[in-house]
């Protein structure tokens, strides 16, 4: 993918991978340019979402971003807090996050997953106005949907290793199986 092709993907929106009644709806911050260019969530090489999803036991093998629709067969889905693609999440305004949180809450009310897993605690804090949120299960619910804040799988999030991320994702998986 050339730099011009990536730049042309700026502000694009990619389709959610969703269905009603999912076990877990994973929610990214917003699509990166590689994701927008390909139409696949967490598509940038070096993003650890797909390896961590497998290592944590959510999928029986490591899926490729192009196989994202297979998640539905496992009761999993993907959406984003903010729909528009940017090169970096810091290009988004707090208002975009708050509006994204409102739209996300409406989507969750409609789809009714058991768990909403926001991959990025800072995005969760801003979108839902919860400055004290930490990684893990949250007190807030959306209807009957519980919320879990997960570490962001971006390669830029260097203080979480793939292993420690997989352990946190596995905690959510265990909770989702019991709920």
Structure in words:
It is built from six helices and five strands. The chain is an alpha/beta fold. The protein has one domain: Uracil-DNA glycosylase-like domain (Uracil-DNA Glycosylase, subunit E). It has a five-stranded mixed beta sheet, with helices on both faces. Strand 4 and strand 5 form a beta hairpin. Helix 3 packs across helix 6 and helix 4 packs across helix 5. The radius of gyration is 15 Å and the shape is globular. It starts with a helix and ends with a helix.
Descriptive tags:
single chain; globular; 179 residues; 5-stranded mixed beta sheet; G/U mismatch-specific DNA glycosylase; hydrolase; alpha/beta; Uracil-DNA Glycosylase, subunit E
């Amino acid at each position: 993918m050339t730099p011009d092709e990536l730049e042309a993907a700026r502000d694009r929106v990619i389709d959610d991978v969703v269905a009603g009644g999912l076990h877990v709806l994973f929610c990214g911050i917003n699509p990166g340019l590689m994701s927008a260019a390909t139409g696949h969530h967490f598509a940038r090489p070096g993003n650890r979402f797909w390896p961590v999803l497998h290592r944590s036991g959510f999928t029986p093998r490591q899926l490729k971003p192009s196989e994202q629709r297979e998640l539905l067969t496992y009761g999993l889905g993907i959406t984003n807090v903010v729909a528009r693609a940017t090169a970096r999440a810091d290009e988004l305004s707090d208002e975009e996050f708050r509006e994204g949180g409102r739209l996300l809450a409406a989507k969750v009310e409609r789809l009714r997953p058991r768990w909403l897993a926001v991959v990025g605690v800072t995005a969760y804090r801003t979108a839902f106005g919860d400055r004290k949120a930490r990684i893990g299960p949250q007190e807030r619910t959306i209807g009957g949907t519980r919320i879990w804040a997960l570490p962001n799988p971006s390669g830029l999030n260097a203080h979480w290793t793939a292993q420690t991320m997989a352990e946190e994702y596995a905690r959510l998986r265990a909770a989702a199986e019991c709920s």
